[in-house]
Amino acid sequence: MMVSGTAPSSDTWRVGVLFSRVGLTAVTETEHFLGTALAIQEINQAGGILGREIEVVAYDPQSDPETYRRLADRMLTDDGISVVFGCSSSAERKAVLPAIERRNGLLWYPSLYEGFEYSPNVIYTGASPNQNSFPLAEYIVRNHGRRVFLVGSDYIYPRESNRIMRDLVESYGGKIVDEVYVPMAATEARLREIVVRAKDLAPDVIFSTVVGRSAQIFYRLYREAGLDPAAMPIASLTMAEGEVREIGAALCEGHITAATYFGSLQGPTNRRFADSFKSEFGADRPISMWSAGAYAQVHLFALALARAGTLDTQRLVEAALGLSFEAPEGQIQIDPDNSHTWLTPRIGRVRSDGGFDVVWEAKAAVKPDPYLAVSPLGGRWIGEEASVA
Amino acid sequence: MKPGIRRLIEELRGARVLVVHPRDAEGDALLDQLKRIGCNVRGIWPPPVEIPGDVDTVFHLVETAETPAFVASASEGGPTFVAIVDYENPTVLRRLLDSNAHGVINKPIRPFGILSSMVLARSMRGYTRRLESKVQKLEETLKARRDVDKAVKILVALKKIGEAEAYELIRSQATQKRLSMAEIAATIISAQDVMAGLGLINER
What we know:
Chain A has helices at residues 26-45, 65-76, 90-102, 133-143, 156-171, 188-201, 212-224, 241-247, 249-252, 268-281, 289-308, 313-320; strands spanning 12-18, 53-59, 83-86, 106-109, 122-124, 147-153, 175-182, 205-209, 234-236, 256-259, 324-327, 330-334, 341-342, 346-350, 356-361. Chain A is of the alpha/beta class. In chain A, the strands form 3 sheets. A 7-stranded mixed β-sheet of chain A has the order 7-6-8-9-10-14-15, sandwiched between helices. A 5-stranded parallel β-sheet of chain A has the order 2-1-3-4-5, with helices on both faces. In chain A, α1 packs parallel to α11, α2 packs parallel to α3 and α4 crosses α5. A 5-stranded parallel β-sheet of chain B has the order 2-1-3-4-5. In chain B, α4 packs across α6 (181-197) and α5 (163-177) crosses α6. The interface between A and B is medium-sized, with 16 and 17 residues.
């Protein structure tokens, strides 16, 4: 059939992968990368999609939005790629979006974020605020107390997450005692000031949206200052197994994270995922929401591609909307109205071994509500649900 | 600022929005995004003769052709009006200005930007409405003030009294009759007109 060698990849599905391996968010993005790689390998070993394997073009944007923008442009123009799995932070996603929309590509975005976005060129498979912040706010006010201290890295995700958290905490009768921001690459001295501030204020909970390496330093300084997670836990939406490992589990024990996945989940799909992840990347490598989410979205893509039979963005999106998949966290589904994903909210507490005890989980997957259009402030989440712990 | 944005966002929930745009892919994209935002939305085409009374925000396509009923024009007490434009030539810009729109979105319609345009337009509408009612109140105050001054002068001439005394007279009449000073003043002014017309008093 082929008359010339000009189309060497016509018998594969070429896709792009953009996750950082170095830089501020190297730990979480490496996990995105490994989850993506594992899923692609599984699919290819099973014979690919419609008989064709997935071929990957991957670059390392080094946790830098500007580099993300440049590499996304290169993928969509020079490499002729339209489907990209990538981005972790909102700043990275926003940097890539113009290129994706202009070239009518399709970005599969695996990370939780602060909501208030919809693009026909993005499938959002991470949690929206109604799937993590909402139950977390009720949980901390009920179980730890009403005085909450907000700290964050200074960019859009922490600012908007804290705005939402303030409304939520107040709706449960709680009070925000202070709201403080640090630079993305905060110095140890600056983070120590935050710890001192926490000590002075003595809140019941610290809600932290400090991310990346700064978060790791912050958790370490917190314990070095003699603060006690049992009395004043740090609650987070991003602190997962990988970063806990980096900091040291002993320094993190007792802190809280709201997420839709924890490595410790007991379902059969998670055991299967954990087994193949560990056999591929090493038994001591932690698994977390970052790798599990990235893994699940590649499988959703494969299902959509099998239906559509083409990488054409419109047809792929049409095939993807409404699709469900037995993910490591359980059944998930792409919402046909907003292209975000139905996920099961959970709250976990760090154990001494670096894993999480799930202290609360929703009974089933919850519809994503990125614009918080149907999620009332002050709604009941925790009360009726059975506590898992 | 914070309660402000929270209120603006909350008001979008259940906002009753009318989209006046042909029922095509772009019209659907706009309807779908407004639903995602949480609005109560319906579409209509061709443009209705009259905007239904139960909508508070209208997205309206500004057409190049002269259509007789560009009814969404921001009238007093009317809905928030967001224009949809697909050309930027002077003809369309002229129609955009004539429409008194509070905001504008461009074609091709993209989901991104609709929320910002709508929040800004609704906020501008509210602000304009507050300014309008303030201006109206100020105008009334100013007119009342002028009438009282005029009535004082009439009384000064008729009764040969001082201005302060004349003013007091109007005030006590107003209190007695439970009317505003402006109303008493207007009565004095029109009475003076009539009496002068009848030759009962000399016009000054």
